[in-house]
Amino acid sequence: MKHIFILAALLMYFSACNPGQRAGDDAAITLTDVQGNKVLLNKPAEKIVCLFEPMLDAIYMLQVQHKLVGIPAETYSDKEAFVPFSLIDERIRDKRLAIPGSNETANLESILALKPDLVIAKHMSDGTIQSLKDMGIAVYLASSEKYDQVLKELEDVGLLTGAVERAHELVAYTKQQFDTMQLAAAAVPEKDKKKAYFTWANGRIYATTGRNSMMNDCLEFAGVWNACTAPVDQPNINAETLISWNPDMIVMWNDPADLFYNKQELSGIKAVKNKAIYNLMPMFFYNPHTLKSTIAATRIKGWATGQTEEAALQEVKKMIVTYYGPVIGNQLITLL
């Protein structure tokens, strides 16, 4: 009962502080997100609660992080996220930015207390979305599942935050990178393309990526075949299936290669025999649900073509500085 009274009081307070602020259909900024949710703002957002890490990443790339008032809870609890974000934002380092939940677990009271004009999430109940809109708070839902979505969402958030020019620069750069990689991949004879098996983190070596996924796009842009032909996002397979695929190389997501080398039943696989097992780590730099999918693809291409480690890291560093700008970018590359 106490929580109901608190929420009611917050709703009344927020309404009193924002009379007539709810944007109508004639709003200056109007768009529809990839999940079909209509987003209206009278002007670019000044206070943002972001509950979805790929979009938090986009906000730093857009260089509008000063508008953040709330971030995903896992930013503090997940070391893979906390270390890089704390390096580039002292508010995260000191845990001063509010963490009003994460997507479905978002706390409405906590969000309202921050008085944002924009909330960005991946999932949120219809009731919560409507309550926020009733208070004049725009809600943007992102997915970041495929290449085209990642680009659209970056441009959308650029529009919603007043960083349109920066968003256009980032999208143009990303398209140029992928176009260049596509041309290079198309020039490789089919018979010479390597077959790659991708596996997700936390020891899940039989959890891979299907053809309907952003990581599949990364593999294709890198000029290699995805060993998995399943038309889904993240299928689970077994040892027999992996052996039958017999990939030339294995790309791991932040796990040790010994997870493969220590399994006797997998010793006959070409990638295992030839020690062609590679690792995308630290994960922050290769997140396929952000513009950094270009970096993941570049790294995979380097492994497939025998590029030296030094040359590969130089490419990665250059792309990080381009995506985040010299100030943040040069801080981040100290982690490589």
TrEMBL record:
Keyword field: Signal
InterPro entries recorded: ABC_Transporter_SBP, ABC_transptr_periplasmic_BD
Domain of life: Bacteria
Leader sequence segment: 1-22
Domain Fe/B12 periplasmic-binding stretches: 47-308
SUPFAM superfamilies reported for this sequence: Helical backbone' metal receptor
Record Pfam families: Peripla_BP_2 (PF01497)
PANTHER family registered for this protein in UniProt: MOLYBDATE-BINDING PROTEIN MOLA, VITAMIN B12-BINDING PROTEIN
Name this polypeptide is given: ABC transporter substrate-binding protein
Organism of origin: Chitinophaga nivalis
Lineage per the UniProt record: Bacteria, Pseudomonadati, Bacteroidota, Chitinophagia, Chitinophagales
